[in-house]
Amino acid sequence: MQIIKLTNETKKNILEQLLKRSPSSYPEFEQRVNDIIENVKQNKDRAVFGYTKQFDGFDVTSENVRVTKEEIEEAYTLVDAKLLDVIKKSLVNIRSYHEKQKKYSWFDSTENGTMLGQKVTPLAAVGVYVPGGKAVYPSSVLMNVVPAKVAGVSRIVMTTPPGKDGKIPASTLIAAHEAGVDEIYKVGGAQAIAALAFGTESIPKVDKITGPGNIYVALAKKAVYGHVSIDSVAGPSEILVLADETANPRYVAADLLSQAEHDEMASAILVTTSETLAKNVAAEIEGFLKTLSRAEIIQKSLDQYGFILLADNLEDAIDAVNEIASEHLEIVTKDAFQVMTKIRNAGAIFIGEYSSEPLGDYFAGPNHVLPTNGTAKFFSALSVDDFIKKSSIVYYSREALEPIHKDIIAFAEAERLTAHANSIKVRFENEK
User: pLDDT tens for residues 236-260?
Assistant: First the structure.
């Protein structure tokens, strides 16, 4: 990785380069995605089944599109017992963390006859998209399904692309079953998003769609937003490590590569105040690339979106971190907890040399569905809040309304909304 001096100009260049990875930067795909969505809206199952045959090579029908109980039972015979044990342990941690996020209805009343409050209601139906292709993602199943279950969602539907043989990876099926998915459908891509958003004869419509996917999935989620809710339009994975001279260069290098292996468009950035660390990390990366199985993907990622930024001081380094607003941030400095208090923008923050990013991906408990492409400046990790809605409650007795009714009338008339004003007036029109 190239070592670059951190300046306002280099920071600006890097931000511009990272934004090129946004799904919104690929308009050439949008028309294709819109065509798929429109076809699914019009032709429902016929369109979905056609695209599944075209893109995934599986001849799906209304009889085999849904994963059966027998297929799930078979999956348990195919997965190593140790992996099943790890999935169950991870599930406990994820559920425990998200249960602390639960929101409850509340009401506040007064003696003069008013009651204000908030009613919390879980969403009725949620669709979870789980990608296939380059890797298998049972961890993403857990991260999307568990907060929905904790929130109290009544029906959780999962879609994921099948192999040419119509099979779904066994570990994905097991994770879905253990987490509590109600229905699983063998459909992927933009056609799956359209099916979840509008419904077909075989796949029911949902209220919200969550989960990562390729550019077609991301753009499809963006296109159906408004018909349904979505979690976010996610971009490629990214990691930023903020480190000083106390950091172990081998650990830092390994952590940077842990995200670079996801995708050729993934981003891995080190921001450091130590030139010695920068050089040592670059050397360690070269060594790891000779042994890692996904070295070709990693190299392409580093060539395009990998940076080592050398800052004059920790304050400048922190400013850069907040500007980049990375999906994952590791802090490996002498006073890591103190530095953490100065971080405003990051999807997830990992503190100390033994809190590497994969700990969060698989096991610790906090959600790994995180904002990317700088959206950590205004978005948060997927949580229980994403699967509930809040209704405000208002109750006033006549005795409570009477002393303030003229104030409301005056406000409405100031906005020239006479029907608003009249709605209050009629309740007191017989009074002098």
Answer: 899 999 999 999 999 999 999 999 9
